[in-house]
Structures are given as structure tokens and as C-alpha cells.
Inverse folding.
């Protein structure tokens, strides 16, 4: 009896996950992004992009712990006749193919058949490793500065990767790979979402 219930639960999760693989994804926006306690949107909007001057970042370099928190909004469209969803997933965010942050989200995602939903993914991670990578950081900061100064032809590739987890009682079973959501970010995108004013 118990084994049949566990099997049914796992089958249901696996079916919802297989459906999630068939969904279409679009990165919509980033909200309430805070780096070491400073609102990143205000930092960028003011044209000040030297993060090393922030007191929280300077202290973070000493402790190797620089907190970043925020929300990534992802639009998911389910073109199938089945429910798509997961209970928990690991994620990575890459800029130009280089990982800048990772973490785990335990907010369930459900996308009913034939519907589109915008899913907020809460970020909470340590970005010390990313801020220590001068090459990637300089490229990103140069892009932001040039865009702020009116350069509209600049673009940067952003990739959001999701690795779903299936729950089997108290045991977590990780999906064998990542679902990638790619977005080419340009000045128009930053202006549209109020990041650059």
C-alpha cells in the first residue's frame, strides 16, 4: 500500500517534470536586487557602478561572504494538456557563459495546461567568487556603464539554469541536467524594466 502511494507520487512528479521540459521560458525581469545591503537598481540608475566602493562589499571581501538577494521573474508557457511543475530546484545564473551565482529555490512552480504564468524565483547567494572574477565583472560593469551613457548597441548574454528536484519522502532526487533559459540583454531591456533611467 505504502509503496504504491510512493510510486504514484513519484510518477505524478515525474510527469509534471517531463511537461515542464516542454514549456517555453522567458526571462522577464529582476526585482529588489540587493548587493551587500545596497539596492542595485539605484546603484546602476545613478551611474555609479564601482561596487568595490560599497562598505558592505569591502567587508565582504575580507570574510569572503558578499550577499546578493533579489527576485528573478521568469515567464513559463505550458503548451501541453498536462500540468507542469516542480517542488524545488537548484539554479545557476551565467553572464557570457560564466557562472556568477547559484542557489536553491524551494518555492513550488505549477503551470496549468495551456496557460502562461510568471514565476518569481527568489535569489539568496554569496557572490564573492563572481566579484573576485575581474574579467567577467569588468565586462558586465562596462556594459552597464556604456548602456547608461546611451550606447544602445551593447548586448550581454544572460543564462538562467534550473535543475529540478523530485521529492521521495525525505529523500531528494536531482534531475540529471539543467533546463536553460537564455536572454540577450540590451539597453532597451534595461530601460523597459527601469534598471537604466
Amino acid at each position: 500500500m505504502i509503496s504504491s502511494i510512493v510510486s504514484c507520487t513519484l510518477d505524478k512528479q515525474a510527469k509534471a517534470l517531463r511537461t515542464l521540459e516542454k514549456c517555453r521560458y522567458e526571462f522577464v525581469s529582476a526585482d529588489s536586487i540587493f548587493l551587500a545591503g545596497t539596492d542595485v537598481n539605484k546603484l546602476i540608475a545613478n551611474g555609479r557602478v564601482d561596487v568595490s566602493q560599497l562598505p558592505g562589499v569591502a567587508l565582504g571581501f575580507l570574510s569572503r561572504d558578499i550577499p546578493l538577494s533579489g527576485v528573478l521573474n521568469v515567464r513559463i508557457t505550458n503548451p501541453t494538456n498536462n500540468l507542469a511543475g516542480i517542488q524545488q530546484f537548484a539554479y545557476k545564473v551565467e553572464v557570457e557563459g560564466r557562472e556568477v551565482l547559484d542557489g536553491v529555490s524551494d518555492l513550488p512552480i505549477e503551470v496549468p495546461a495551456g496557460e502562461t504564468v510568471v514565476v518569481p524565483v527568489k535569489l539568496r547567494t554569496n557572490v564573492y567568487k563572481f566579484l573576485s572574477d575581474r574579467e567577467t565583472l569588468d565586462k558586465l560593469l562596462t556594459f552597464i556603464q556604456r548602456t547608461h551613457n546611451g550606447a544602445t548597441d551593447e548586448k550581454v548574454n544572460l543564462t538562467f539554469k534550473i535543475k529540478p528536484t523530485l521529492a521521495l519522502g525525505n529523500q531528494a532526487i536531482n534531475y540529471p541536467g539543467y533546463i536553460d533559459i537564455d536572454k540577450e540583454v540590451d539597453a532597451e531591456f534595461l530601460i523597459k524594466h527601469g534598471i537604466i533611467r
